Amino acid sequence: MCDLAAALEIVGPRWALLIVERLLDGPQRYGDLQRELGAPTNMLATRLKELEAAGVLRRLPLKHNTRAYALTDRGLDLANAIAELGRWGSGLSDTD
Amino acid sequence: MCDLAAALEIVGPRWALLIVERLLDGPQRYGDLQRELGAPTNMLATRLKELEAAGVLRRLPLKHNTRAYALTDRGLDLANAIAELGRWGSGLSDTD
DNA sequence: CTGCATCCGGAATGATACTG
DNA sequence: CAGTATCATTCCGGATGCAG
Q1: Which residue range or ranges hold the HTH hxlR-type domain (chains A, B) (predicted)?
Q2: Alpha-carbon distance A79 to B85, whole Å?
């Protein structure tokens, strides 16, 4: 299996890369991600668990009943790939 | 909608990025892609149509009953993003 | 013989309501 | 606020069949 397929095993499922992109801004809470992404709550919970298991992000327990999700080094490493993909996406309306 | 989401609308579905990666080697025929990717034939046909509609690749009619699929400029533009994602995927076994 | 559509079972996804 | 349970819908995967 090539490296790209291995990467897609983790960030391929829907919402995964969007979650990481939001987290590049800094740690965010569950409700913040849900609102900004517009993702279904069950999918958000599922992806967060997968990404945590993959070592892309980790949960930071806060006071009371709140936690925050923050990228690990492995997650921050995705910044370049996300930037390139975003740059490509921004040029989709050009020269159409 | 952010640029990343727009990009994922096209290359998000399964096999899409894998197809483009194989095509970076040069134009390939349907059977070649099917064998090297191990993708189901129906999915391959579906993704190829979507990617063609998105202007990522185009069909080159060959002699007889064969066609080849080749990347357009827009498809070649994905090389950087694929390279970054592949690089990230290759580091997944490190420091595990 | 290559390219692709169709059929069907199963997995992934999405909307909503509910619990701690 | 954070996450789970449930159910409808769509997507995916494998086999098969048909057309050029």
Answers
A1: 2-96
A2: 10
Compute and round to an integer the Cα radius of gyration of chain B: 14
Per-residue pLDDT tens digits for B37-56: 999 999 999 999 999 999 99
Question: Which of B10, B12, B84 is opposite residue A80, by nearest beta carbon?
Answer: B84
Query: Residue B71 — φ and ψ, nearest 5°?
Result: -75, 145
Instruction: List the domains of chain A with CATH numbers.
Output: 15-91 (1.10.10.10)
- What is the spatial distance between Cα A68 and Cα A70, in angstroms, rounded to a whole number? 7
Both tokens of residue A76?
A: 């921050």
- Contacting residues of A for B8, CB less than 8 Å apart: 14, 17-18, 85, 89
Residue A68, token pair as written in the block: 């925050």
What are the distances in angstroms from CA B18 to CA A11, A23, A32, A41, B15?
Answer: 13, 26, 32, 29, 5
Write the pLDDT tens digit of every residue in A10-41.
Answer: 999 999 999 999 999 999 999 999 999 999 99
pLDDT at B2 over 60: yes
Interface of B with A in 5-64 (CB under 8 A): 5-8, 10-12, 14, 17-18, 21, 54-55
8 A C-beta contact, residue B88 and residue A83: no
